[in-house]
Design goal:
globular, mainly alpha, single chain, two-stranded antiparallel ribbon, about 260 residues
């Protein structure tokens, strides 16, 4: 049994609450496996089972995008495994390399979203401009949380929660490719449902292990869910339609 620092408004310093490290390792490792399984299921028909590099994707940039985001998921899984195996030094060394990926992922995510917008890709019955709001706003959410996780890299209790929630936000794209139609849900609603379940799992873990919500979870969990849930409503506004049209007109032809 170890301790974990929890800051409370009424305290002048950290209050240390006992944390069962075995349960902690099982939870974060289990979440890493769950997220990787969700990504595999979601992208299996069009990417993994289609041959990965040989997959008939509509744009070359999507091959680079898919490879880099897959590498992130694999590194996320390996990093969780290293902590479970008590290889903290290896985890930190690999983390230095892993944090070179987010800036590349952000750029590739924007390019892939604009490419899809220019090709008129639709998510379910959503118009291309609304469909583009989902990845573009999602990238903004990922940027905010992943940057916060980097700032918190010397505070493991906050860092691991922020990394997990940032990756949960990425997995929403995989949820959007689940067969939600069998349940009568459109893809966008199904994706938000899946994201909501992941966020609730993180909150539930905090409540069970700490008997309160960790302050990093307290802001990052609702923020991550709000980004996923509000992207479609934002995408339906006239302001977003005008913004998407400007992006498609000025940047789309050059991708």
């Amino acid at each position: 049994m170890a301790t974990e620092a929890i800051l409370t408004p009424a305290s002048r310093g950290p209050v240390y609450r006992p944390v069962n490290r075995t349960v902690e390792r099982v939870f974060f490792s289990g979440m890493a496996v769950l997220l990787c399984v969700c990504v595999f299921i979601g992208f299996s028909p069009t990417y993994f089972q289609a041959g990965i590099l040989r997959a008939p994707l509509p744009s070359p940039i999507l091959h680079v995008h898919g490879a880099v985001f897959t590498l992130w998921m694999l590194l996320f899984l390996v990093q969780a495994a290293l902590i479970s195996a008590h290889r903290v030094k290896w985890h930190r060394s690999l983390g230095t390399v892993a944090f070179c990926l987010p800036p590349i992922m952000i750029v590739l995510g924007v390019i892939a979203a604009l490419d899809a917008l220019h090709r008129g890709v639709q998510i379910g019955l959503l118009a291309p401009s609304v469909s583009a709001a989902i990845p573009l706003i999602g990238i903004v959410g990922f940027t905010v949380v992943i940057y916060a996780s980097w700032r918190a890299r010397r505070r493991p209790d906050a860092h691991k929660r922020l990394i997990l929630l940032a990756t949960c936000g990425l997995v929403e794209a995989a949820f959007g490719r689940f067969p939600w139609a069998r349940l009568g849900l459109p893809p966008a609603a199904g994706a938000v449902t899946g994201l909501g379940i992941l966020v609730l799992l993180v909150i539930a873990y905090d409540l069970v292990s700490l008997h309160r919500i960790h302050r990093s979870t307290m802001w990052a969990a609702p923020f991550t869910f709000a980004v996923g849930a509000l992207s479609v409503p934002i995408g339906m506004t006239p302001a977003w339609h005008a913004f998407a049209a400007m992006l498609n007109r000025t940047i789309g032809p050059h991708i």
